[in-house]
């Protein structure tokens, strides 16, 4: 069942920001000169994650070369690449006491390799500074170029993630410059590149998809080689973004969770406030805690 979007938010969407949990980490991030997608995308979990001393770092500037209908990140002329970004993030991770770090980026179609080499360099900087730290990367589609995917995989991330974001039918209107099949190809290329890492994807619901389409997407992701999947409620980050079509209730998220587990996913996060990097370290919880 779903809630009508013309009414106020349903009772299960009642998470509030705790500014005390945000303050210390925000202060550290400002001093370090690094950015997080937590802030740029206005993630509703930001205070929870900052309280746990975790963050998802945003590489390659704050302006994306694409303009997806759901995204709060700025778009337009991109900034120059900061070659020192890896060491800044490694130092910030040390000050936060992290054991698991997530790296994502804006899409950089202007770069000759889509930013793959920069991802690899940042992974290398972190692994050199913190040999025991696990690293998850959440990448763009790199225009579907498998050699760019291999560049990132060869830097030995522990998790390679790329989000399909939505079902096949909605992709053209929601994901600027993207392709559903191209995203599946990126995930397949990551799996085929080897390295023993885990492969992960995520999607949002409440954008006008049907349950049958979500279940078909989960099957496609599993067939592409994904070990883990996240399923969360789309929440409109600003008025310029597409509106929410419906609020999916917790019982439906439970159906999706069970379906994904039945398909063989190793880890499934499914719930209204789940986001692609939410509790990402739990993929390795049995190893690092």
Could you list some keywords that capture this structure?
single chain, alpha/beta, eight-stranded mixed beta sheet, two-stranded antiparallel ribbon
Notes on the structure:
- This protein is an alpha/beta fold and 289 residues long.
- It has a single domain (14-288), classed as Aldolase class I (TIM Barrel).
- Helix content is 37%, strand content 17%.
- The chain has eleven helices and twelve strands.
- The strands form three sheets. An eight-stranded mixed sheet has the order 2-3-6-7-8-9-10-12.
- The model has no long low-confidence stretch (mean pLDDT 86).
**What would CATH call the architecture?**
Alpha-Beta Barrel
Q: Count of helical segments? A: 11
In quaternary terms, these chains amount to single chain
> How many β-strand runs?
12
Strand content bin: 15-25%
- Report the top-level CATH class: Alpha Beta
Overall helicity: 25-40%
| Backbone CA Rg | 18 Å
* SSE order: EHEHHEEEHEHEHEHHEHEEHEH
The low-confidence runs, each spanning 5 or more residues with pLDDT under 50, are none
* Helix-strand makeup class: alpha/beta
The separation of the N and C termini measures 37 Å
What's the CATH superfamily, by name? Aldolase class I
Kindly give the count of domains: 1
Largest sheet: 8 strands, mixed
| Main sheet strand line-up | 2-3-6-7-8-9-10-12
What is the third-level CATH name, the topology? TIM Barrel
User: What is the averaged pLDDT score?
Assistant: 86
Quick one: overall form? globular
């Amino acid at each position: 069942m779903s809630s009508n979007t013309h009414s106020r938010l349903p009772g299960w969407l009642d998470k509030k920001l705790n500014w005390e949990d945000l303050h210390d980490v925000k202060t550290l991030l400002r001093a370090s000169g690094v950015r997080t997608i937590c802030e740029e995308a206005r993630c509703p979990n930001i205070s929870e994650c900052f309280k746990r001393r975790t963050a998802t770092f945003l590489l390659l500037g704050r302006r994306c070369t694409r303009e997806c209908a759901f995204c709060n990140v700025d778009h337009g002329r991109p900034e120059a690449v900061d070659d020192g970004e890896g060491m800044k993030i490694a130092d910030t991770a040390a000050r936060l006491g992290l054991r698991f770090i997530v790296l994502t980026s804006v899409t950089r179609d202007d770069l000759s390799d889509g930013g793959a080499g920069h991802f690899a360099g940042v992974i290398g900087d972190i692994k050199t500074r913190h040999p025991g730290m696990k690293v998850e990367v959440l990448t763009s589609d790199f225009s579907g170029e498998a050699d760019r995917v291999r560049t990132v995989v060869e830097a030995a991330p522990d998790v390679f993630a790329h989000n399909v974001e939505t079902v096949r039918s909605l992709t053209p209107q929601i994901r600027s410059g993207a392709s559903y099949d191209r995203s599946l190809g990126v995930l397949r290329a990551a799996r085929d590149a080897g390295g023993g890492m885990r492969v992960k994807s995520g999607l949002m619901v409440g954008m006008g998809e049907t349950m049958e389409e979500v279940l078909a997407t989960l099957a496609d992701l599993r067939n592409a080689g994904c070990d883990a999947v996240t399923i969360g409620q789309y929440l409109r980050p600003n008025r310029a973004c597409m509106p929410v079509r419906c609020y999916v209730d917790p019982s439906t998220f439970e159906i999706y969770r069970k379906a994904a587990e039945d398909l063989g996913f190793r880890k499934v996060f499914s719930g209204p406030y789940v986001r692609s990097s939410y509790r990402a370290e739990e993929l390795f919880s049995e190893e690092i805690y």
